[in-house]
Amino acid sequence: MRAQFVLSEIGVGLRRNLTMTFAVVVSVALSLALFGGSLLMSDQVNTMKGYWYDKVNVSIFLCNKSDAESDPHCARGAVTSDQKKQIVADLGKMATVVQKVTYESSDQAYKHYKEQFGDSPLASSLTPDQMQESYRIKLKDPEKYQVIATAFDGRDGVQSVQDQKGILDNLFGLLNGMNWAARAVMAMMLVVALMLIVNTVRVSAFSRRRETGIMRLVGASGFYIQAPFIAEAAVAGLIGGGVACGFLLIARYFIIDHGLALSEKLNLINFIGWDAVLTKLPLILATSLLMPALAAFFALRKYLKV
């Protein structure tokens, strides 16, 4: 009987405040969709870091004759055979840091440049002897770049030491910034959703103040009086959470797999899988249920004292 009463009161409350209930559902759905999206963005950035940092190289570019004439780092002339042998020997002593060393001659560098930038106007004016020889170093730990830079930067015959990780750090910094911006918008949407939930519950309680007063007079407990209002807020929030879950599933399906099909167009990016999305759905649903229920509970504690 009590369960039937609570359920009937939930239906009455949702129908009486249909407009505000709809606003609660929409605001909860948007805020939790942003919440889930920010969690997935963090997973995506971490996945990309693990994928790309494992592939980055440190490059030691050697001086050539052209550099000796124009680059102050190569003022002592082009790299010599003895200097190259010393570089290889020193790299061999760094077995704890270095995983693999690949030599690229000037002819190979010229060939790779032509393959990648053959349409560039500059490509037609370059010759193989203008390209730099280099050692491409695969590190066991990408964070150990500074060890290589300290050992070889400024050495005779070395034009520069470049770390590809620095380029990736800028990209991941931008992605993290976008993620924090999404979280800020999510926080504002959650505040709006909580305010709407509190106002909706109070309006519902005010419209039924005579009934709740009678229930208090006949000895009904405070929780028994509050239960329909708390359940009403929880149901509205749960509907919004379900909509948010739908948004995330649809976004994953159309943006990555189909529609935009980024997984096919951007083969260089290792996108998160469905498992990452599905593991976030229970958290979103739990939040959508508990957040409105707790907000309604604390909003009603003082309001329903009659």
What this model shows, in words?
- The protein is α+β, with helices and mostly antiparallel strands.
- The chain contains twelve helices and four strands, in the order ααβααβαβαβαααααα.
- It has a four-stranded antiparallel sheet with strand order 2-3-1-4.
- It is elongated, with a radius of gyration of 32 Å.
- The chain starts with a helix and ends with a helix.
Q: Work out the radius of gyration.
A: 32 Å
Low-confidence region ranges: none
Number of strands: 4
- Principal-axis shape equals elongated
Mean pLDDT: 80
Class of secondary structure makeup: alpha+beta
Strand content: 5-15%
The level of helicity is 55-70%
Which strand order spans the largest sheet, edge to edge or round the barrel? 2-3-1-4
- What is the overall number of helices? 12
* Major sheet attributes: 4 strands, antiparallel
> How many angstroms separate the termini?
24 Å
> H/E series, N to C?
HHEHHEHEHEHHHHHH
Write the layout of secondary structure elements.
Blueprint: H1 2-16, H2 18-53, E1 57-62, H3 65-70, H4 81-92, E2 98-104, H5 106-117, E3 134-139, H6 145-152, E4 158-163, H7 164-207, H8 209-217, H9 222-257, H10 262-265, H11 274-278, H12 281-303
Antiparallel strand pairs: 1-3, 1-4, 2-3
From the structure above, extract its key features.
alpha+beta, 4 strands
Brief rundown of the structure:
With 306 residues, the protein is α+β, with helices and mostly antiparallel strands. The protein has helices at 2-16, 18-53, 65-70, 81-92, 106-117, 145-152, 164-207, 209-217, 222-257, 262-265, 274-278, 281-303; strands at residues 57-62, 98-104, 134-139, 158-163.
